[in-house]
Amino acid sequence: MISWLTEPFLHPFMQRGLIVAIIVGIVCSIIGCFVVIRSMAFLGDALAHAILPGIAIAYILGGNLFIGALIAAVVVALGIGFLSRQAKIKEDTAIGILFTAALAVGIAIMSTIRTFAVDLSHILFGNILGVNYTDIIFVSVLGILILLLLFIFYKEFMIISFDPVFAYTRKIKVNFFNNLLLVMLSLTIVISIQTVGVVLVAAMLVTPGATAYLISKRLKNMMFISALFGILSSLAGLYLSYYANIASGAAIVICATAIFLFVFLFSPNKGLLIRKLRNFSLRKIKNL
Amino acid sequence: MKNSNFLFKKNNIKKARLNTEARLEVENINVSYGKNIALDNISFVVEEGENIALIGPNGAGKSTLFKALVGLIPLDSGKILIHGFPAGYHIDCVAYVPQKEEIDWMFPITVFEVVLMGRYSNLKTFSKPQKKDSEIVFSSLEKMGIKELAHEKISELSGGQQQKVFIARAIAQRPHILLMDEPFTGVDLSTKETILSFLNDSKKNKITVIVAIHDLNIAAKNFEKVILLNKKLIAFGKQTEVFTKSNLNKAFGDQIMFLNGMAFLDECCPPDDYKKNIGGHY
Q1: Domain residue ranges in chain B
Q2: Which residues of B touch A (CB under 8 A)?
Q3: Which residue in A165, A217, A218 is closest to B72 by CB distance?
Q4: Which of A136, A201, B83, B169 is geometrically suited to a Cys-Cys bond with B21, CB 3.0 to 4.6 A?
Q5: Please, what is the angle between helix A174-214 and helix A12-37, to 10°?
Q6: Residue extents of the structural domains in chain A
């Protein structure tokens, strides 16, 4: 049993993958709590797709892919805010326009590159086994920075998410913190590319947070529980990936979803199955 | 002459200063959203400790007026002075109780945490609140009679309890001026009474309160002074003088009906203005 557990991580590439997967699991699931309670799931998904042109341009210029992705994500995130404010269209419409535009530009640029298919699939679906030491440092530094900002401005983020009008009256810079949250979300997506890839990053942002939401009363607890689910999904996903020989990003997301379904059905107070069973036994008692 | 002598008596200076400062002065303010005029040249002065009902049909600019008063919406022209300073200058002394519809009730937050927000300027990040702030939170909850709900999630509360939570948050802010947007809408009778007795207390404690109200009869029974608003200020003053047939007709148009000397609103078919305001969802 123990050797079954330790065997995958005897390989150095699996060790590196594990470290990155766990950091990404924690950061995604904690910032994901804000994505869940602010109904930003669509925005998260859109931001993830919007980084493609940044990566493509960086690749052609031979620069750092992460930095290219980061610039693209921040530009699109701020662009969405600007467009929905200035053009007076609804935010999800602004998201729809900008993210598909960015995706199209990204694909157009990438289609000029020869190794198009392989590179694209790494970006879309992640390539956790190709993680090197520079990546680990990059992911840890950014991850810690994001968590630190969330910790320092927790109170402000909580208040602007819950009651922005109240936040204005208390002189909290609502626009500034909204934009900061968007930038932090972009950073999170950028560090997640290698683990789960562009297509599945939204799952890591939403699923652990949603699972935690089902069983927590307070935002602080929700963030903590969400982080635990994030770690658990990453870990279980890597085992699944190793033993079933499936893509690691997909495996992690499948595990996160399985945890969600389990909690949804069996959580002590709100679980669907538990509620049904309780109603059933109540009815039985009444019929006696 | 007599008055100025009174001002210069040493013991009374502080009191006199308070009297001039705690006023809420609104001078010729205009607010618009694009081409739509929301508030058209509104002026009034509210003295310290007055309870005032703000009456008007949907889309009359009641919420807009409140948002202007807290400095949330920029004015096209005119000025608002609170304690002699412009709106938005104050952090702690103006509290705003939002309409229930504006709150996301599914948010994972407990009653205690909502009320603790009222102590925002004193709070440290992530660490436990200070003893004094916790005490203020609990005493505010006690005033609203919901102390035992402190650790409940807000989504589990009834409509009346939810309203009380937000009033408790405003109390915890220790405001001089309190703005309440439709607190009587969609609450049960006992909540109505709790709010009314709270309004009485605040009068004693010299808190100035403006309450946006839909129900003309609540306003007529419980408020001495009334602002009647429909984009323009239609009337302001003692309710016996404001609530005349012609004033109410001016404010509510066809919506108002008179039966046995009482006024009622016909809310079955909203007027055209309202349809425009909510963006054609009809």
Answers
A1: 2-249
A2: 67, 70-72, 91, 94-96, 98, 102-104, 106-110, 113-114, 117, 120-121, 123, 125-126, 151-153, 169
A3: A165
A4: B83
A5: 110
A6: 2-287
A163 and B103 within 8 Å at the Cβ level: the answer is: yes
How many angstroms separate the CA of residue A214 from the nearest CA in chain B? Answer: 10
The minimal CB distance from B108 to the residues A155, A163, A222 is found for A222
CB within 8 Å: B94 and A218: no
ipTM of the complex: 0.82
Q: How far apart (Å, rounded) are the C-alpha atoms in residues B207 and B202?
A: 5
pTM metric for this prediction: 0.83
Candidates A154, A213, A222; nearest CB to B125: A154
Q: Do A161 and B108 touch (CB under 8 A)?
A: no
Which residue of chain A comes nearest to B102, CA vs CA?
A163
Quote the tokens at residue B145: 């009679």
- Nearest-CB residue to A165 (from B98, B107, B125): B98
Give how far B178 is from chain A: nearest CA, Å.
12
The pLDDT assigned to A150 comes to 94
* Average of per-residue pLDDT across A184-203: 87
| Number of C-beta neighbours around residue B262 at 10 A | 10
CATH 1.20.120.1760 is held by the domain A2-287: no
Closest CA to A28 of A211, A156, A215, A216: A211
pLDDT value of position A239: 93
Cβ B108 vs Cβ A217: under 8 Å: yes
CATH number of B2-249: 3.40.50.300
H/E run at residue A178: helix A174-214
**Tens place of pLDDT per residue across chain B (282 aa):** 444 444 444 444 344 344 445 678 888 999 988 888 889 889 999 888 888 999 888 888 888 898 888 888 888 888 888 877 776 666 667 888 988 888 888 999 999 999 999 888 766 665 677 888 889 999 999 989 999 999 999 999 988 899 999 999 999 988 888 999 989 888 888 899 999 999 988 888 888 899 998 788 888 888 889 998 888 888 898 888 888 878 888 888 777 777 666 677 766 555 554 544 444 443
Q: Which residues of A touch B121 (CB under 8 A)?
A: 170
Cα–Cα distance, A197 to A257 (Å, whole number): 16
* B109 vs A contacts (CB less than 8 Å): 158, 162, 218-219
More confident position, A88 or B55: B55
Strands (E), A24-71: none
